[in-house]
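Running log. JK asked me to keep both predictions on one page so they can be read side by side. First protein, sequence followed by its tokens:
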Amino acid sequence: MKFTVAILALAGTLAYGALSTTNTVAAQGKSQWDGVYTEDQAKRGEPLYGQYCASCHGPDLAGGEMAPGLTGGEFTSNWNDLSLGDLYERIRISMPQSAPGSLSRQQNSDILAFILRKMNMPVGQAELSTSTDELKGIKFLAAKSRKLTDRFLVEARATARCSGPSASASCPASSNAAPSWRCPWK
């Protein structure tokens, strides 16, 4: 009985967490994982990067003596959970180092699209905006988020197939279930 109550409490906690996460994900809106630039835009950004950025950040975007890399774990960690608007503004105001703020908004947007392509971010159907306010609505996320609601539903369905110690091998709890365990959804 205590075990069943514990399972029901855990299921309730998971459901609450999944619903709370759904609202958070919805509130966050888009991220760079949603394909926010076009291939043509990234192609336009490549020669601009070579001309204005590569001397400091390296031709492979790995960084140099005085400038950080623009790809990889350290970069994604530093920018995680900020917006593309924040990154765009950093580029627009302070780059290139030899002439900060000298590039047009379109050039900065094209360079950012090139950086996203080099990070293997998905290509989209619309070009990356040149509006900082619009770019503020796009989160930069280090890893592609997995919707907890989808995972919760899959796990709940799998658990619902379980029927205690005689559960099939596909039951996630069958290998470590207590002998008296019964699926609370049966």
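And the second, directly underneath as requested:
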Amino acid sequence: MNTRALSTVLIVLALAGCGARDESPPPAATAPPPAAWQLKMQEAATAAAANDAAGVRKALVQALAEAPDPQIAASILTDLAGLTGGEDPAAAVALCRTELARWEAAYGTSAVAIAPVLVVQAQVCGLSGDQAASEASAGRALALLEGKFGAEHPALAPALGVRMQALAGLRRWDEAAACGERLLLILERNGGTDNPRYVGTLNGQIALLAAAGRFADAIALNNRAIAIVERTRGPRSPDLATALVNGAGLLHQAGRPFEADVMERRAAALAP
């Protein structure tokens, strides 16, 4: 073989993988197609944009039937029950119970996976006025979640919040306040005290403690709320004035009029 022929052979071998690299970019990853329930949720969004309530309801019902697990089902159920409950609360409750039975059949009645559906059922029952059923569903969800995650896991927050509201509706103030105390602890450990959800829950807890006649505890929490509002929204915020007025009211109820007067004066100084 002559030198020129040998050179040609070496070039061919190199291009075949003995030294040459393919510098072309890898093919782009292909996104998986949307699942059936996702397509139906897209249809619901389109119908909502067109103010087509019947179309929204139809698409949500179809999406719920295609939901692959209780967590997704609970999310869809929240939308569908909210849409139904405004017109027919009893139908919304029945819808939740049917969906719960579906997932109980699939996972069992003691599986933590069904907890999200139980929480939605508790919310819907509460909105329908059946606080006893709401408390029972939320309590059952809470027990399942505690068994899986322990007493202070953030996954417990939704169930604690709904059960707190149901217990308040039943005028079981001390039990409601106990739920609120746990919820505040979870929120503080998983987001701090300055976030709006913590502040909203704190205000709810103050009201529960006052309803239970625990004015010293309510005043202490309201002082915390005042400090948070002043720190996060400024010393001239209207929200600070509201917190001060609430504090003065609690002090009056506790029989501490002089302290209440000081707080009222401070609130009045913030008036525009």
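Observation for JK regarding the second prediction: The domain at 191-272 is CATH 1.25.40.10 (Serine Threonine Protein Phosphatase 5, Tetratricopeptide repeat).
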